[in-house]
Amino acid sequence: MFNPHFESFQAKIIDKPFYAEGEFNYPSTAIISFFDKQGRFMFAHDYGHLPLNQIYERIDASGELILNHCYVHNFSATAYRRTRLKDKNEFVELKRISAKAALFSSEFNIDFSFLRIGDGDVDFSECCFANGDLLFNQTVCGQGKVDFSNTTIRCKKVDFANAQFGSGLKTFKNALFFEGSKDFQYADFGNGEVNFVNTDFGSGDISFINSNFNNGDVSFKVARFGDGKVDFHFCKFGEGDISFERTDFGNGLVDFKTVEFGSGKVNFNRAVFGSGEITFEGSAAEGRITFKKTEFSEGSISFELAEYENTELNIEKAIIGNCKLSFFDGSFHTLVLKGCHLNNYLDLRVRQCHEIDLSDTVVRDIIDLKPYQNEVKLSILNISGMRLLGTIYIDWKNNHVLNLIRNQHKTSLAEKAEQFRTLKESFNKSGQYSDEDYSYVWFKRYELLAEFSSDKHLSKVTRITRYPEYLFKKLVFDYAGLYATNPFRVMISMVTVYATFSLLYSFLLSLGLGGIVSGLTPEHNAIGIVGRSFFFSGVTFLTIGYGDFYPMGLIRGLSVLEGFTGVFLMSYFTVAFVRKILR
Predict the structure, then answer these.
(1) How many domains does the chain have?
(2) Is the sign of the CA dihedral 352, 358, 364, 370 positive or negative?
(3) Residue 437, domain extent
(4) What is the DSSP string of 332-366?
(5) What is the structure's pLDDT at 522?
């Protein structure tokens, strides 16, 4: 079995026919001996052999290049053109190419550039390109299948720049590249499936800059990139699905800047990114993009200026590591970071987004949502289940925080309450005490609503008995003083209660159902009903107790209630006032 991990080889040509699988047999045999790095013999393999001049003559005769199981040394389409007195950039017309399980070597270039293949297949499956530079630049393939599956490419430079492919399958499945650059710049892969499944790109830079994948499924599933730069800058995808599932991107720069992902689904699930910078800056998509359980190491991840207005970007349960993650000035429909551990700065100052889901996250640093130069247009922010060890930079008014939580349709009242509590803690850490008060009030409101709503499973009688309790808490804790966050609100409540009791006294006095009688001289009783009512109410509410008037009849019980209410509201005011001052 062929072992691609050799270091060198030697060829011996013998005058013995070689019978290959396929359409041609060969007049001689090449015995290839392979050696490891220490020069030790590893294995030997037999190939058919044809001199170059006979290969070129077969092209002339049939317009086909058939080299299955053949050892070919120094093949060059440029040399072929030169021997036929053609211009160096003139296309060579071929019907098809079949070089299955062949071995190519060269001291210079293995050159297939400027070939134009008809609608026949191009088959280099199980082929080995042993050394030299491999050139397919400007090659044009027809509508047939292009097969580089299980190919071993040990060349220092691989050039498919400006190559054009038809609508047939293009496959590099299980291909193995070694050191050196791989250049697919401006390649046009045509319509139809493109398959790089389980391809090992080796070390060195890989460039798909400005490549066009058109309309067809594209798969880099389980592919492995080395430590060089992985560059898809300006790349265009069409209507097909795109898969980078479980792809290993190595430790180099990964550049998807300004890529157009098209309308298909884009899958980076369980992919592994190394310590290099990762950028999707300015990229655009219409379909769903997922990074579920993707592993990021260090460096930075940028989705800045991304154009995903109709796209869900799902990074659920990804391992973010110590990466800085930025979505600054990007447009998204839905942004999901559910279940992530966020150990570094997260910039969520998006240009616009319908919903950001940060539920069940663990936050150890800063989440930045506070508008800087432009408004952050966001409709829903879900932080239910968040464990906040860091801080959320957000502004209650400018970020419309109340609506961010209230607009949620999938969370319960208790979950909404918990989110307001989380924001309250964050506002306290960042010194935004007014915003903390707003969050605390809405936390208590939703907590009360959740508690009352949870009683729905009880009997109607039990619920009716609970309703007065709910109304009492709502009136006293909320309406009277906004849960001790607003001393001015408490003062207004005090004045309102005082005036209400005063008017009640006046009403009872006018009906003769009670009395406010002076215990001193008769002249005190000459004060009018309203005057006595307001004076007695003030003395009772403030618990001054002059003793110049005392209640009679129904007013006795009412005055006891007012005295208790006055003591309570004055204490309530003191708590709210001191709370404001101390902070």
Answers:
(1) 2
(2) positive
(3) 412-479
(4) EEEEE-TT-EE-S-EE---SEEEEEE-TT-EE-SE
(5) 62
* Residue 459: inside a domain: yes
Q: How far apart are the first and last CA of the chain?
A: 78
Q: Which pLDDT score is estimated for 510?
A: 85
Residues 13, 29 contacting (CB under 8 angstroms): yes
pLDDT at 90 > cutoff 60:
yes
- Of residues 86, 33, 28, the one with CA closest to residue 56: 86
Instruction: For residues 439 and 494, state if they share a domain.
Output: no
Alpha helices in 410-486 (DSSP H): 413-429, 433-453, 460-473
Rounded to the nearest integer, the mean pLDDT of the chain is 91
C-alpha dihedral (15, 16, 20, 24), degrees to nearest 10: 60
In tens, the pLDDT along 130-164 reads 999 999 999 999 999 999 999 999 999 999 999 99
At 254, is the pLDDT very low, low, confident or very high (cuts 50, 70, 90)? very high
How far apart are alpha carbons 424 and 193 in whole angstroms?
Answer: 52
Structure tokens at 182: 């791989």
Q: Does 491 share its domain with 575?
A: yes
Give pLDDT, residue 460: 65
Six-digit token string for 238: 């069409």
Rounded Cα–Cα distance for residues 143 and 17 (Å): 34
Rounded alpha-carbon distances, angstroms, from residue 301 to 295, 307, 382:
12, 16, 22
Query: Which pLDDT score is estimated for 551?
Result: 83
**The domain boundary residue, chosen from 433, 452, 479:** 479
Residue 517 and residue 545 in one domain: yes
Dig out the tokens for 372 from the structure.
């800087």
Q: Reduce the DSSP state of residue 377 to 3 states and report it.
A: strand
Choose the weakest-confidence range: 6-15, 83-92, 364-373, 514-523. 514-523
Q: Which residues of 4-25 are buried (b: 16+ CB within 10 A; e: fewer)?
A: eebeebeeeeeeeebebebebe
Q: Are 485 and 494 in contact (CB under 8 A)?
A: no
173 lies in a domain? Answer: no
Which of 40-44, 494-498, 578-582 has the lowest average pLDDT? 578-582
pLDDT band for position 299 (cuts 50, 70, 90): confident
Our CA dihedral for 196, 198, 201, 206, rounded to 10 degrees, sits at 40
Q: Are residues 468 and 505 in the same domain?
A: no
Residue 230 falls inside a structural domain: no
State whether residue 98 is helix, strand or coil: strand
d(CA 499, CA 502): 5
Residue keyed to tokens 């499936």: 193
Q: Look-up: residue for tokens 């650059």?
A: 181
CA distances from 512 to 19, 285, 459, 509, 530 (A): 127, 80, 43, 5, 14
For residue 152, give the H/E element and its range: strand 152-153
State whether residue 225 is helix, strand or coil. Answer: coil
Q: Which of 444, 460, 479 is the last residue of a domain?
A: 479
What's the predicted TM-score (pTM) here? 0.87
Residue among 151, 14, 125 at smallest CA distance from 67: 125
Q: Are residues 450 and 506 in the same domain?
A: no
Task: Please say if the pLDDT value at position 526 is more than 60.
Answer: no
Pairing mode, strands 387-388 and 362-363: parallel
